[in-house]
Amino acid sequence: MSQFRLHLDLQLFAGEKSEPATPKKRQESRKKGQVAKSMDLPAAFILFFVFLSFYLFGGFMKDKLVHVFRHIYQSELLMDVSTGNVLVLFSSLAVECLILLAPIMLFAMIIAVLGNYLQIGVMFTGEPLMMKFNKINPIEGFKRLFSMRVVVDFLKSMLKMSIIGYVVYTTLWGRKEEILKMGHLPLEAAFKFIASITLQLGIKIGLILIVLALFDFMYQKYEFEKSIKMSKQDIKDEHKKSDGDPLIKGKIREQQRRMAMQRMMQEVPKADVVITNPTHYAVALKYDAGNMQAPVVIAKGSDYMALKIKEVAKQHKIMTMENKPLARAIYAQVEMGESIPADLFQAVAEVLAYVYKVKGRTK
């Protein structure tokens, strides 16, 4: 009974998802679009750097805006109102507005791409766009509505709103005297004051959101790592799938051995001589003086394979010679398709010379 309970406990432990995800599991999750990503981080970067870009392009935008108004008041105010003139005017204003906003839009686009790239790198997948019926399942939707993620997102939103509200309040309260006097300022000075306080708030809020987004990214990474954890059994199954079924692999190796043996046996009839142990080893040699610098081993085997080589040699009237030291040396030192090494030249040459003498030919 205790052994059964221990076995049951081990089974439960093996099913617990307590192991970090393997590289293969991470790759499969990435293909499905499942990555650690904070949606707040790109938005925070865009807000901060867009307001920062106003410092860089503010002079250019001011000159461009003044130029547009000056052109309208000086050149277009007294024009004849007609369909053609109005179309030309609005086309000109659209182009000027595009030129005015282009640096900011381009800057925002670059920052958005970088904000995502820094989190997940380059990733192209259409898996998240595929239709999944569980997303429209009311029961699943109800579960998501009261899930821990929703609670965390709500708390994050409340924290952001509280911090941003506090920053806006303290910033405006610190400059309350200037705000109260703004009604007595010239129009240009009032615009400058509003622009400066707006930029100040934008930079502060952007920095705060970036810091909060970095914490959110760490939380999302923690949640992602938790969601892709694997059990010990999952890892074993993955290794089994990666390595293949041992039974199938054994059958494949057996088939490969049979094919290799068949190819080797087809080469034996081309041999000039088969050197044997006589029972444990057999080596088939071929030598063509016109095309080979040294004799080549075209087949070799031990025990059963040696017996098969000798049988094929006998069937095709290939001379078989017994030379125990030479057969063992060639079998141990030379692979199929390789030439005889220099230290065995003399012994092999004597064997081939004898074979050619018996056959009544010389090479």
Quick summary of this structure?
With 363 residues, this protein is of the alpha+beta class. The protein has helices at residues 2-15, 23-31, 40-76, 83-120, 138-145, 148-174, 176-180, 187-227, 232-243, 246-267, 304-315, 324-333, 345-359, and strands at 17-19, 230-231, 273-276, 281-286, 296-302, 320-322. The strands form two sheets. The chain has a four-stranded mixed beta sheet, sandwiched between helices.
Verbal overview:
With 363 residues, the chain is of the alpha+beta class. It is built from 13 helices and six strands. A hairpin with a 4-residue loop joins β3 (273-276) and β4 (281-286). The radius of gyration is 42 Å and the shape is elongated.
Which structural traits does this protein have?
four-stranded mixed β-sheet, two-stranded antiparallel sheet, 7% strand
Widest β-sheet, arrangement of strands: 5-4-3-6
Low-confidence runs: 1-13
Could you give the distance between the termini? Answer: 81 Å
Mean pLDDT: 78
Structural class, judged by helices and strands? alpha+beta
**Largest beta-sheet details:** 4 strands, mixed
Strand content: 5-15%
Q: What is the number of helices?
A: 13
Please tally the β strands and state the result.
6
The helix content, as a percent range, equals 55-70%
